[in-house]
Amino acid sequence: MTVIRPKIELLTNEYKEKIYQEAKAILRTQGVEIENPEARSLLNEEGVENEADRYFIPGDLVDKLRAYAPSEIKLFDREGKEVIKLSQDNIHFDPGSAAIFIQDLKSGNIREALSTDYIKFSKIVDHLPNIDAQSTAIVYSDVSSDAQDWHRLYLALLNCSKPIVTGTFRTESFAIMRNLLELTRTSSDKLAEKPLAIFDACPSPPLMWSNLTTQSVIDASISGIPSEFVSMPLAGSTAPITLIGCVTQHTAECLAGLVIAQLAKRNAPVIWGGSPAVFDMKYGTTPMGAIDTMMINIADVEMGKFLNLPTNAYMSLSDSKVPDAQAGFEGGMGALLAGLTGVNMIAGPGMLDYESTQSFEKLVIDNEIVGMVKRFVQGISDYGEPFAQSILKDYDSNVSLLSHPTTLKLFRKELYLPFIVEGVQIINRETRELWKLSGEMSARQRAKEIAIKLSERSPKHSIDDSLKKELEKIAEKNLN
C-alpha cells in the first residue's frame, strides 16, 4: 500500500473551469480554421456556422461531444499483450517524433539519418526496460519521401515489439500504415480491440487544423486508432506571451480536434496534450527544456485531466546539442515534473536540439532517469505496523540488518536498481578505486558503450516469420 503518491499541480479547479469556459468562448466567437473538406462537411451537418473555412463551434456541441471521448485507452504490444494503460496518473515514456538528425553512435557527429540508424534505434528501445513505447522517432533520408511515413512504421514493427507512437506527413500514407497494423492484428476489428499504435495529430497555431492533420484524426477515429493531439502554441509568437493565455489557446485547439474526432465516430479514442513552448526572445528559438515550457505542459495536462481524458506531453527532452550536463538537468527535470503531474504518455527520451536530433547516448541515459522517476512516483509503501520496531529488535552489535528477512524480501521493491548491460551501467556507484580500475569513464562514455552493445543485439522479441514475410510483401508492393 502506498502512503501517498507524490503529486504536483499548477492550476486550481477554479482556474481550470475559467480556462475551459474561455476556450469554448474562443471557439464560439473567433472560431477555428478548418482546411479539410470532410471535417467541414461533418461540421456543416451539425449546423455549425462558418465564414468560408472558419467555423464557430458552439459550446453546447463541445460539451455534448466531449462526453463521448473515452477516459482510458489501453495499448498492446505487437504480440497482443496489454502493456500500457493511459488513464488517471499512470505514466509511460516514448522517444518522441520525429527528429531529422541523428547523433552518430560511434563518431558523435550530428548528421542526417539512414534507415540503418532507425533499425539500431528501434532495437535499443526494445531492450530498454523503462521506455514503454517506441516511436517513429527519426526521419531518414535513404527512402523516398512519399514512402517515409509507412516505412518507419514498417521498420518499427520488424525491430521492436512495443506499442508505437507514429503519424503521417502525407494523407496517402494512412491507408498503408493502417494496412500494416491490421495485418499485424489480422483484422481491423482486432486492431480496434487491441490498439498497437497512436497517431500524432498536430494543429497549426493559432486556431487552425490543417488538411493533413485533420484527415489523420478522421481516419484514425473511423478505424478505432487513438489520435494523440500535439498542439504546439508558441508563447510570445503564435500564442499569447502569458502562460495562462497560451494554455487557454491550447485548450481551444484541442477541443476543436476533439469535436472533429467525435463527429467522425462517437467514442473515438483521443489523447489530450501537445508540444508547446515559450519563444526565446534573444535567439528566436523554441526552448523545449525551458522551465516555462514545462509549466505550460503541466497546465495543459491538468486541463486534459480536468476533462477526464488521457494525456500526453513532450517533457523529457533537452535543447542541448550534445548529451551533456544541460541535457541531463533539462531532461531530468522534465521527466520528474511530468511524472509528478501524472502525464500518461511522456515523449522525449533521446531528443536534443529543439526536437530535431535523436541521440542514442541520451536515450540510454534517459532510460535511467525514467526508471528513477517511476520509482519516485510509487511513493513510500506501507507494509504494516510497526514500521521499524519489530525489525530493530532483531538487531545487535553482532547481527547486520543486511541479512534480515525483510531486507532480502523487499530490497528489490524498495530500491531502484540501475539497468546493467554486460557489467556496464549508467549510474556509477563504485568506489573511486574501482572506478579508476574500470577505465574512469564518464556517464556519457558508459552510455555510448551500452548503446553500441544493445544496437548489435537481435531484437529482444523476435517477430513471427510469417508475419515478417507478409509485412515485407506490403513494403515491396508500395516501394515499387
What is the number of domains? 1
User: Quick one: overall form?
Assistant: globular
**Which fold name corresponds to the CATH topology?**
TIM Barrel
Number of beta-strand segments: 22
Write a concise synopsis of the structure shown.
44% of the residues lie in helices and 14% in strands. The protein is an alpha/beta fold and 480 residues long. The longest helix is centred in the middle third of the chain and has 22 residues, at 243-264.
Description of the molecule:
The protein is an alpha/beta fold. The protein has a single domain, classed as Trimethylamine methyltransferase-like (TIM Barrel, Alpha-Beta Barrel). The protein has 17 helices and 22 strands. The strands form six sheets. The protein has an eight-stranded parallel beta sheet. Strand 7 and strand 8 form a beta hairpin. Helix 6 runs antiparallel to helix 17, helix 8 crosses helix 9 and helix 12 packs across helix 16. The longest helix has 22 residues. It is globular and about 85 Å long. The termini are far apart.
List the topology elements:
Blueprint: H1 13-29, E1 32-34, H2 37-45, E2 49-51, E3 54-56, H3 59-66, E4 73-76, E5 82-86, E6 92-94, E7 101-103, E8 110-112, H4 115-127, E9 134-135, H5 148-159, E10 164-166, H6 173-185, H7 188-193, E11 197-201, E12 208-209, H8 211-223, E13 227-229, E14 234-235, H9 243-264, E15 270-274, E16 277-278, H10 291-306, E17 311-314, H11 325-341, E18 345-347, E19 351-352, E20 357-359, H12 360-378, H13 389-392, H14 405-414, E21 420-421, E22 424-425, H15 432-437, H16 443-455, H17 465-479
Parallel strand pairs: 1-12, 6-18, 7-20, 9-10, 10-11, 11-13, 13-15, 14-16, 15-17, 17-18
Antiparallel strand pairs: 1-3, 2-3, 4-5, 7-8, 19-20, 21-22
Helix pairs in contact: 1-9, 3-9, 4-5, 5-6, 6-17, 8-9, 9-10, 10-11, 11-12, 12-16
